Fold this protein.
Amino acid sequence: MNFIFALLVATLFGSGAYMIMRRSIVKLLFGLILLGNAANLLIFLSASPVRGRSAIVPPGQKVLTPPHADPLGQALILTAIVISFGLLAFAIILVKRTYVAMDDDDLDQLDGGRPE
Amino acid sequence: MTVLAPVLWPLFVAALLLLAWRRPRLQRVGSVLGSFGHVWLSAELVRVVLANGLQVTELGGWRAPFGIVFVADRLGAAMAMVTAVVGLASTIYSVSGIDSRREAFGYHALVQVLLAGVCGAFLTGDLFNLYVWFEVMLMSSFVLLALGGEKKQMMGALQYVALNLISSIVFLSALGLLYGLVGSLNMADVAVRLPQAQNDGLVAAICSLLALAFGIKAAVFPVYVWLPSSYHTPPTIVSALFAGLLTKVGVYALIRSQVLFFDVSTPWMRLILLAVGILTMVFGVMGAVAQGGFRRVLSFHIVSQIGYMILGLAWMTPMALAATVFYVLHHILVKTNLFFIAGIARRHCHTEELSRMGGLYARYPGLALLFLIPAMSLAGLPPLSGFWAKLFILKAGVDLESWWPVVAALVVGFFTLFSMLKLWNEAFWKSPPEELPDKPDPAIGRQRWRVIPVVMLAGGTVAFGVFAGPVLDFSLEAAKELLNPQIYVDAVLGDRS
């Protein structure tokens, strides 16, 4: 199970890295989305998920008996998802505005550095 | 509560400013008054920290390491203080320095949110919370950078946004791995548990990922290119704020994380930092020499100066770390001021290209003299603050007999002087290429508002140079706190460690 997740994380990181190195701005955006999800899944994975054992104290017991899933790791991911959602919404608008301003999807034309 | 005040206050001011959405004049007044309050609150924090040592606030009564803590040590409190001062200077500058279109889209509130994010990053004691403050700061900086929507701005903003998003993702991945390894993200708790973690490979990976993430934000070699290609695109006031504060948040986070990993970090990390520091200095200054735009020259100098700070961090002796702290504090004031002056010069010459500027000394000798203070401080001429900052870094290097970085620092210092003289000659001294059109500027009547922060920050730079002794003592104390994490751990965890 964990091994499959690890493979998934690796694939997402790999394809995300590939996408951000392409020349198209839209693909840069897709790359960022993939990388963001890869990072979230990595947190999920390293907080050592346990299947079917949520962190709720069963009735009649005083304490949790390990092993149980770690809710804190998932709380971290939720926060990260919300934040990256906002950032990506902004990035999408920015990409659209840039595309309209440049009339081009090629990152190599994007040299804001040159004086006009 | 005192610890949280410099973080919450700007957010509160921002909320109030949003209420005055359609009243830009009211927003200007509110924003300046709010910044005065911010300076007062952070000065209060510095005073309390100096008097009583580390201050800790546990949010919502959740005890560390379970809840989020805010911690103010000397470094954090001083950074918050300088942030507030730069914020005040910027809000005064923006009374006349920002166009009404940007004002109408919430410029003033965004600046306050940015200040809250920066202060939050300086004062939090929790790594995941640090990530959140980074995002608060980035989001407002994204909007500030893109606000106005000129073509050039869009291009700069896209590079800035993309690189910073990547840096955030790297940071987040490092946090995930760290949480998996030690089961905590409270900085003090991590410092306690990390040496017990028997996994050198993973520790090295986390350490390098954090260094990469913060390195991108601090704009070090080889990930600095986003900075010079975006910082000259927005209005002057925005780039001045960014130039002063944002990269320094990256440097601050680098210092914190390296100190945290101090016990477990291997010698190769020191070596990498040393190489990165040298290359950042050299590439930054070489880039600056080749540039022809006022703000572009200054942008490359941000990169080159970051190199000095990284050197001090790589050496990691009390003297070196104190020199880095001194350097960061001095650099924030000087760099913001230089960008302010670049904006005023641009307003007078109607251009930012050095080849088409000139004659400012003849027409505005006062402005020219005001330029000389931060410029010569940046270049490191005595008795200004930059001289002491460089001297302390060099002294730390000489003490360690680490000759190559010392030689590099000296050479880079020489080129910095050269480049500042170029700015002086091109913009201020030489006669203008053609007679400048004496267009009456609609906002020129309020120009004096922009000179106030320049005078204020120049005064700060001079005071920094004159009182270098006390500031160095303060920095040495801050370095001592940093190098002895037990002080921090005891303050946060108490007897629970």
User: Anything to note?
Assistant: Chain A has one domain: 2-51+68-109. The interface with chain B takes residues 20, 25, 28, 32, 35-36, 38-40, 42-48, 72-73, 76, 79-80, 83-84, 86-87, 90-91, 94-95, 97-98, 101-102, 110-113, 115-116 of chain A (CB under 8 Å). Residues 112-116 of chain A have pLDDT under 50 and may be disordered.
